[in-house]
Write a structure and sequence with these properties.
It is a single chain. The protein has 5 helices and 14 strands. By secondary structure, it is α+β, with helices and mostly antiparallel strands. Strands 1, 2, 4, 5, 6, 8, 10, 11 and 12 form a 9-stranded antiparallel sheet that branches. The N and C termini lie far apart (179 Å).
């Protein structure tokens, strides 16, 4: 009986020990440092060693509020300036900035919060962002570049983990609270101490290479469903139709021109006298050119006429005649074979008088007193076709 009682005692002690250990683990899950549900990795490229310059409850800036479990990582000198920062786990990235009234960076400066449903990781004092607001990221994907924007002394990365807690107000509105949480374990490390260096095993995620097929499929689906693509296709079709219409119109105009030219040639061959030139409809392109050519021709004709008039006036002045009374020089009549009386009184320089036809039968007064002065009726020897002639 004594032997069985000892075994029972040992069994009860073991059960109590296991219960206490489970109770302590549950407390650590609620208020402690261990994160079982999130697989965290250091936010640097694989093979890089970064030093923890300020750890938990750091005296400089990790001794109050939500920064009690934050970690500051850096490299000696300023080797970490512009270094790529990777996502510690899968989630959704939200780009944020903290500025004062003057527009200067304060606090965290440029920082990114990655939402992991129950938890949030923060990457602060960044130089610039490599993702857009609300973009989904994968573990190891580059999200930004290290710097010292905001309230910071030197280049480093401020990394922190928060656990989300959602509560409701009296009015029924949901309020989310963020509780600081130790980022452990992370890349196999269960604790982080200031002054020590830690090797990263976070592989760089290449989105273009690994998800090429998925992206192609998604893009093809989006293009099929996207209404803007259909509208673009419709616009391109309308443009093509307009081009075809314009080409047809230009061809029709060219064929009409050729047909008219052929008709005019046929008319010239058959009856050149009865040829009546029909106006050719100008194309919208050639209308301006034709107008300009017509104006130039009219100007040239006016200049020619003015030059001819000036020449006639000069000739008349040389001969001593009034240009307004000078007869036209177009029609000439053959010379008489016998000398006419009173020929010396004419103003012509030559001794041979010329005859010109006029529309009205008029006679000029003779300066001589000879009764045989010429009148409107001419002798039968004159071969002029006009019925009335006047002598000058």
């Amino acid at each position: 009986m004594n032997f069985d009682f000892l075994k029972f005692k040992k069994f009860v002690i073991l059960i109590i020990f296991v219960a206490i250990s489970l109770f302590l683990k549950s407390l650590t899950l609620l208020f402690g440092s261990n994160n079982v549900f999130l697989d965290l990795k250091l936010p640097f490229e694989e093979g890089e060693k970064w030093i923890v310059t300020q750890g938990y409850h750091g005296s400089y800036s990790h001794n109050k509020g939500g920064n009690i479990y934050a970690l500051d990582f850096s490299l000696p000198g300023e080797q970490d300036y512009g270094k790529p920062i990777l996502a510690a786990a899968d989630g959704v990235a939200y780009v944020k900035e903290q500025k004062d009234k003057k527009g200067l960076y304060v606090g965290y400066g440029k920082y990114i919060d990655v939402d992991h449903e129950e938890y949030v990781t923060r990457y602060a004092h960044l130089l610039n962002f490599a993702v857009e607001n609300g973009q989904k990221v994968r573990q190891g994907e580059m999200i930004g570049y290290a710097d010292n924007t905001g309230t910071s002394i030197g280049t480093h990365l401020h990394f922190a983990l928060y656990r989300k807690e959602v509560k409701e107000d009296k009015e029924g509105k949901k309020i989310t609270k963020y509780h600081p949480f130790k980022p452990e374990p992370m890349s196999g490390y269960s604790s982080f101490v200031a002054g020590k260096s830690y090797l990263s095993d976070n592989r760089l995620f290449k989105k273009e290479v690994e998800n090429n097929k998925k992206l192609v499929k998604e893009e093809s689906r989006i293009i099929k469903k996207d209404p803007s693509s259909e509208s673009l296709k419709k616009e391109s079709k309308l443009k093509e139709k307009d081009k075809e219409k314009k080409k047809k119109e230009s061809r029709e105009i060219e064929t009409k021109k050729i047909e008219r030219k052929d008709e005019l040639k046929k008319k010239e061959k058959n009856d050149p006298k009865s040829l009546v030139l029909e106006p050719v409809l100008p194309t919208p392109k050639d209308s301006k050119e034709k107008k300009d050519s017509k104006e130039e021709k009219s100007k040239e004709n006016l200049e020619k006429q003015s030059k001819e008039k000036k020449k006639e006036e000069e000739k008349a002045e040389e001969k001593g005649k009034d240009p307004s009374l000078s007869p036209p020089l177009s029609s000439k009549v053959p010379i008489y074979p016998f000398p006419l009386p009173g020929a010396s009184d004419f103003h012509h320089s030559s001794s041979e008088p010329t005859l010109t036809s006029t529309a009205t039968p008029t006679t000029l007064p003779s300066t001589s007193s000879d009764p045989l002065t010429p009148t409107a009726s001419l002798s039968p020897l004159t071969p002029a076709p006009s019925p009335s002639l006047t002598l000058f």
